[in-house]
Amino acid sequence: MKPFLRLLAAVLPIAITGCSKPHDHDKKSAHSAHVHVAPHGGTLVEIGEHVYNVELLRDRSAGKLTAWILDAHAENFVRVKATELALVAMPGGQYTPLKLRAVANPATGETVGDTSQFEIQADWLKTAPDFAGIFTVEIGGTPYRDVAFSIAAPTAEAAADHAHASGAKKKEKPPAHDSPRGGTLVEIGEHEYNVDLVLDRATGTLHGWILGAHAKGVDDRVRIAMPSFETHVTIDGRKQTLVFQAQADPATGEQPGNTSVFFARADWLKTATNFDGVLPKLVIGGETFTDTTFNFPKGRTHP
Prior knowledge:
The protein is mainly β. It has 2 helices and 17 strands.
C-alpha cells in the first residue's frame, strides 16, 4: 500500500468517529471546554490547537462543496493566499481527490489569492452518502497537513444549535454590538450588516461605514457598488434628505463603486443632537434592504 493511502486509512477512522466534535480527552484543559458553531450550518474542522477552523458545507441539491477559513472562535473569516484547496474524500471507500477553487467576493473585497472561501461542484456530491477525508491548508504562513474531517448530515441537535446561533429563532433578540468608532450603529436586515454613523459636528459631516454583522471594525468592512445612497431625516419636525457619497480609502484600496466608506454634509448637522432617519434603499452583497428606520444617536428602530 502506498504511504499516502496508509496515512489516509489511519486517519479516516478517527475522522468518522468524531474529528469535528469537541474533544473528550484532556478535560482539565480550558481548550476542551470550547464549543463553536459553524456560521453556515456546516461541519467545523479545528485547525491546529484551537488556532483556526475550516467550515465545510455540502449542498446536495447543487452538488457543491464549500469551505470557509475561519478564526479560532469561528466568528471571523481568515483570508489566505492559496488559489485552491486540495482535499481527498473517501465516499463509499473510494479515493476521490478534489480541488476547491478560490472564490472572489465583491461584497467583502476578497479576490482569488486573497480570500477565505473555496468551492467545487461535482455531481457525485448530490447522491454520495456521508464521507470522510483529509486536506492540507496553509494559513498565515503555517502549513497544516493531513487534517482529518468527516461530513455528515446535521443532527436535529446540531441544526437547533445553528438556528440558535444564527438568530433563526426570531423571538430571540440578536446580541447587541458597539460601534468600533464610538458612533451610532444601525443594524441592516436581521443581524446581517450594520451601518456605522459618526458625526463630525465641526464640519457638518456624517460619516458612514458599511460593516458586517458583528461590526468588528476595519476587518469587518463590507464593500458595496452603490455610488451613493439617501437618508430621509426628520429633525425638530422638519424633513431633510442626506445624500451619502462613496469615498475612497487609500489605506484599504477602496474606491467609489467598490467601497465601504461614505459621507454626507449639511450645515444643520453642525448643531444636530437627535434625529430620526430612514434608509430607503441599500444594496449589500446582492441583497436589497429597504426602509430601515433608525434614531441618531440611539441606533436601529423597529416601527
